[in-house]
């Protein structure tokens, strides 16, 4: 096996793309993967910076820093397993996460990013490190919602929900002048 084959094998995602993920734009997939990778490196770095809170006896920031470093490691294992190929279980974990729906990834990343905010809210390193993991969760949440429908599709769905259209009202009437809204007792 040549060196290029080994590199391409490391860079390829295990499990491949599922058929359910075909409606997601390519740029959004790359945005989620790129922000997750870069954001996890930044979260690990700033988590280490948060751990320096032990010097000022700020224990909640120390715990937030440790949590942030662990969250960054988990995200990098899921998003870029080629960065941690020396750990045995990374391939299987990455493959399991790749087969999961996007909303599972979104929920996991949002859940990993929130606790440091409660522990060390006023730290810039918490905002930047965990904020990028949170943004990755937001992108995966948007990917889970899927593509927006066309105007005609949305109009058809809105019309299908109600059996009859309500009567058109005069929108220039005030609340007191509209006989359908205000009825004297």
From TrEMBL:
Residue stretches spanning the membrane: 35-57, 69-90, 102-124
GO biological process, one term: endocytosis
Chief location: membrane
Keyword Membrane: yes
Signal peptide: none
Molecular function as annotated in GO: calcium channel activity
Keyword list, A-Z: Calcium, Calcium channel, Calcium transport, Cell projection, Cytoplasmic vesicle, Endocytosis, Endosome, Ion channel, Ion transport, Membrane, Transmembrane, Transmembrane helix, Transport
Bilayer disposition of the protein: Multi-pass membrane protein
InterPro entries found in the cross-reference section: TVP18/Ca-channel_flower
GO CC annotations on file: endosome; presynaptic membrane; synaptic vesicle membrane
Subcellular location: Cytoplasmic vesicle, Secretory vesicle, Synaptic vesicle membrane; Endosome; Presynaptic cell membrane
Similarity remark: Belongs to the calcium channel flower family.
Subunit structure: Homomultimer. Associates with the dally/ magu complex.
Full protein name: Calcium channel flower
Species this chain originates from: Bombyx mori (Silk moth)
């Amino acid at each position: 096996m040549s060196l290029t084959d080994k590199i391409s094998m490391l860079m390829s995602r295990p499990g491949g793309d599922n058929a359910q993920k075909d409606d997601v734009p390519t740029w959004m997939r790359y945005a989620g993967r790129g922000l997750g990778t870069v954001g996890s490196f930044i979260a690990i770095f700033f988590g280490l910076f948060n751990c320096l809170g032990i010097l000022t006896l700020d224990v909640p920031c120390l715990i937030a820093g440790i949590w942030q470093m662990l969250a960054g490691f988990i995200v990098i294992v899921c998003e870029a397993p080629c960065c941690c190929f020396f750990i045995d279980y990374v391939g299987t974990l990455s493959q399991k996460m790749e087969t999961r729906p996007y909303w599972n990834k979104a929920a996991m990343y949002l859940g990993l990013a929130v606790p440091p905010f409660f522990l060390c809210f006023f730290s810039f390193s918490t905002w930047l490190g965990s904020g990028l993991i949170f943004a990755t969760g937001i992108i995966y949440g948007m990917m889970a919602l899927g593509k927006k429908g066309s105007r005609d599709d949305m109009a058809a769905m809105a019309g299908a929900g109600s059996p009859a259209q309500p009567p058109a009202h005069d929108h220039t009437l005030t609340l007191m002048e509209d006989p359908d809204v205000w009825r004297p007792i």
